[in-house]
């Protein structure tokens, strides 16, 4: 074969493009798993045990009302974790770490979003520490900006418990060195720790600080009877609406009855009872000042096979467009639109192809 | 020679203006009710309309729309309440001192911080101090008017970016050098001569926070929603980015919140 000496550059570009296409296109056509997004873990589709059956509430029975007020450990607060039951979840990604101040700074700078409540607290605002002082709306806005979403309560729990359904992310025995919790009353100065601290306390799926450090917002509304009343066993999204609650035990919420969102995982300040993987707590979605440790992490759905198939045809159409094979491209984009008729990207490509054909 | 004359003239004029303003303010403030416990100088903001909130292309959704709001006359502290003044109150009523962010000593034993704005105070602490001093917290509208004047200035000093001014913002913690003594840079004060309304310490407001309040508030003496779970915090602090420094920007926090950047001033 003889090279066309007039167009060596074009040939070179052609091969470069081909390489790029092959790199991006072949793995898809071979139906390989898409790469896991940076700093996220993949949690494959499957069942897990949600909730725990308890004969008695952990604490609260022998507490005076003043103590309950302080510790937020009423009997009712702990009766919400049962009954235990199998729940199926589709595959999803979850952030390996809690969202850090560094990441939240990028979000603020990009969107002109207001700073969170603890922004100027020097023991909590270092770059690697988890962002604190965000309310549910802030957390939700961040995740959408990052092209993610808040995890559902079930997704959060599965990621923390692992397939063995453990009580703590690392197992069933409470160990004080594996997480940052119950540090509020020692008199020494403690606070949140960097989001990649305590690798020895990560969950089976490799998710860090699911116990302690900061409580984490999840997507769901809070209803203490949800596990008892819900019939949803596949990808539960939580109750349609929260029940009206007057208190979380903090005096902020005592004064403000309203619907609450679930928070999970305990914090550096919170007692050991609150760091179990099944523990459910709640907070007003507007409250950005809970304790000194309430942050979040984000999740992302894994595309279904049908969506991946559509994407594959879309990319095929792009390549055929590039090769000026418009009829083939039209047939490919039509296949892509079969499963995804409303996809704007696909539809606009189809318009472009049609224009080319009609030229 | 000429240059020196200009400088001298400038200094003279500045002094003249500030003295006359201060005199006026003192006279009017004194004509309200004698304040004996709290020596912080106040200035009177005359009754009238001002532009509150932000125009369509400006600021954030919860600051819109920009409207004319009428306020009766009121007085407001020209400085944020300092550690020195706050501790005087704490010792007078025998309360525990607020946490000392600068070290392990008691705040009252820390040297060189007397003129820094007090921080690490909750909304309740701020309310208690003002009440003790015979005053109250400003409403959000009062604070905003005092900070931007009546013509809707973007910042207390006008429309120039804070990057061009000596403003304490977007900085990291440097112990007792983080916050600046109150009134360090008079050139950044508001049209009413109120100091440190952008940066340094954020400030507690009397009002509850509601995201739709600017759209629904009464046009005369608005005093905040009837209830809520967060109080408004305004002005931005040493760690804020510039958008949070705008007098129209609306921070918020629960009333148990305390940080190294939230203080307050009183009104009357």
H/I helix tally of chain B: 5
Q: Measure the end-to-end span of chain A.
A: 35 Å
- The best one-word shape of chain A is globular
Q: Look at the helices and sheets of chain B and give the structural class.
A: alpha+beta
Largest sheet descriptor of chain A: 4 strands, mixed
The percent range for strand residues of chain A is 5-15%
Low-confidence stretches of chain A: 1-5, 24-31, 69-77
Which segments of chain B are poorly predicted (pLDDT under 50) over 5 or more consecutive residues?
Answer: 10-34
Radius of gyration of chain A: 25 Å
Average pLDDT of chain A, rounded to a whole number, is 84
SSE succession of chain A: HEEHHEEHHHEHEHEEEEEHHH
Please outline the major beta sheet of chain B: 4 strands, mixed
Number of helices of chain A: 11
- Kindly estimate the percentage of residues of chain B that lie in beta strands according to DSSP: 5-15%
Characterize the quaternary organization of these chains: heterodimer
Mean pLDDT of chain B: 89
Helix content of chain A: 25-40%
Measured distance between first and last alpha carbons of chain B: 47 Å
CATH topology-level name of the largest domain in chain A = paralog of FGE (formylglycine-generating enzyme)
Count of the separate structural domains of chain A: 2
What does this structure look like?
The complex is a heterodimer of chains A (359) and B (268). By secondary structure, chain A is α+β, with helices and mostly antiparallel strands. Chain A has two domains: 8-33 and 312-358, no CATH class; 76-301, Alpha-Beta Complex (paralog of FGE (formylglycine-generating enzyme)). Chain A is built from eleven helices and eleven strands. Chain A has helices at residues 8-29, 65-71, 75-78, 101-111, 136-145, 153-161, 226-229, 251-254, 305-322, 326-339, 344-358, and strands at residues 40-43, 46-50, 85-89, 92-95, 215-221, 244-245, 258-259, 261-264, 280-283, 294-296, 299-301. In chain A, strands 9-8-5-10 form a four-stranded mixed sheet. In chain A, strands 1-4-11 form a three-stranded antiparallel sheet, covered by helices on one side. In chain A, strands 2-3 form a two-stranded antiparallel sheet. In chain A, helix 1 packs antiparallel against helix 9 (305-322), helix 9 (305-322) runs antiparallel to helix 10 (326-339) and helix 10 packs antiparallel against helix 11. Chain A is globular, with a radius of gyration of 25 Å. Residues 1-5, 24-31 and 69-77 of chain A have low confidence and may be disordered. Chain B has 268 residues and is α+β, with helices and mostly antiparallel strands. Chain B has helices at 2-32, 83-93, 123-132, 140-148, 213-216; strands spanning 42-45, 48-52, 67-71, 74-77, 202-208, 231-234, 251-253, 262-263. The radius of gyration of chain B is 18 Å and the shape is globular. Chain B starts with a helix and ends in a 5-residue tail after the last strand. The interface between A and B is medium-sized, with 26 and 29 residues.
């Amino acid at each position: 074969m003889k090279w066309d000496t007039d167009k060596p550059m074009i040939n070179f570009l052609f091969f470069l493009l081909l390489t790029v296409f092959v790199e991006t296109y072949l793995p898809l056509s071979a139906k390989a798993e898409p790469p896991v997004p940076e700093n996220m873990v993949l949690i494959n589709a499957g069942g897990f045990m949600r909730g725990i059956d308890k004969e008695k509430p952990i604490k609260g029975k022998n507490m005076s009302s003043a103590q309950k007020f302080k510790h937020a450990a009423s009997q009712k607060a702990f009766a919400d974790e049962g009954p235990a039951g199998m729940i199926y979840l589709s595959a999803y990604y979850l952030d390996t770490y809690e969202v850090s101040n560094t990441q939240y700074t990028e979000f603020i700078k990009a969107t002109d979003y207001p700073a969170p409540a603890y922004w100027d607290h020097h023991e909590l605002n270092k770059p690697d520490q988890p962002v604190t002082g965000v309310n549910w709306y802030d957390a939700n806005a961040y995740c959408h900006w990052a092209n993610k979403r808040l995890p559902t309560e079930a997704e959060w729990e599965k990621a923390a418990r692992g397939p063995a359904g453990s009580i703590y992310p690392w197992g069933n025995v409470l160990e004080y060195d594996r997480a940052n919790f119950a540090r509020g009353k020692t008199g020494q100065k403690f606070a949140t720790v960097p989001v990649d601290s305590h690798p020895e306390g990560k969950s089976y799926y490799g998710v860090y600080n699911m116990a302690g450090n900061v409580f984490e917002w999840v997507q769901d509304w809070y209803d203490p009877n949800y596990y008892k009343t819900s019939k949803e066993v596949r990808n539960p999204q939580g109750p349609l609406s929260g029940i009206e609650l007057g208190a979380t035990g903090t005096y902020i919420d005592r004064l403000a009855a309203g619907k609450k969102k679930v928070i999970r995982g305990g914090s550096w300040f919170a007692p050991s009872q609150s760091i179990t993987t099944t523990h459910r707590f709640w907070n007003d979605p507007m409250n950005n000042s809970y304790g000194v440790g309430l942050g979040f992490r984000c999740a992302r759905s894994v595309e279904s096979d049908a969506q991946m198939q559509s994407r594959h045809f879309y990319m095929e159409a792009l390549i055929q467009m590039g090769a000026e094979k418009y009829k083939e491209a039209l047939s490919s984009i039509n296949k892509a639109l079969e499963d995804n008729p409303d996809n704007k990207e696909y539809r606009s490509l189809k318009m472009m192809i049609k224009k080319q054909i009609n030229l | 020679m000429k240059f020196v004359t200009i400088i001298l003239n400038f200094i003279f004029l500045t002094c003249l203006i500030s003295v006359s303003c201060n005199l006026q303010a003192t006279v009017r403030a004194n004509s309200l009710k004698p304040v004996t416990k709290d020596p912080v100088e106040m200035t009177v903001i005359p009754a009238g309309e001002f532009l509150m909130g932000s125009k369509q292309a400006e600021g954030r959704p919860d600051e819109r729309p920009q409207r004319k709001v009428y306020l009766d006359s009121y007085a407001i502290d020209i400085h944020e309440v300092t550690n020195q003044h706050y501790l005087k109150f704490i010792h007078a009523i025998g309360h525990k001192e607020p946490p000392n962010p600068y070290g392990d000593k008691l705040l009252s034993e820390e040297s060189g911080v007397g003129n820094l704005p007090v921080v690490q105070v909750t909304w309740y602490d701020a309310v208690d101090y003002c009440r003790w001093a015979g005053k109250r917290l400003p409403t959000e509208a009062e604070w905003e008017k005092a900070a931007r004047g009546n013509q809707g200035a973007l910042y207390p000093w006008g429309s120039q970016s804070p990057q061009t001014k000596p403003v304490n913002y977007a900085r990291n913690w440097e112990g007792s050098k983080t916050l600046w003594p109150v009134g360090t840079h008079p050139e950044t004060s508001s049209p009413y001569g109120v100091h440190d309304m952008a940066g340094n310490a954020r400030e507690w407001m009397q009002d509850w926070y509601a995201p739709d309040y600017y759209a629904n508030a009464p046009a005369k003496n608005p005093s905040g929603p009837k209830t809520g779970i967060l109080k408004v915090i305004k002005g931005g602090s040493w760690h804020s980015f510039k958008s949070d420094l705008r007098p129209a920007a609306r921070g918020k926090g629960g009333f148990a919140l305390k940080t190294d950047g939230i203080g307050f001033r009183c009104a009357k």
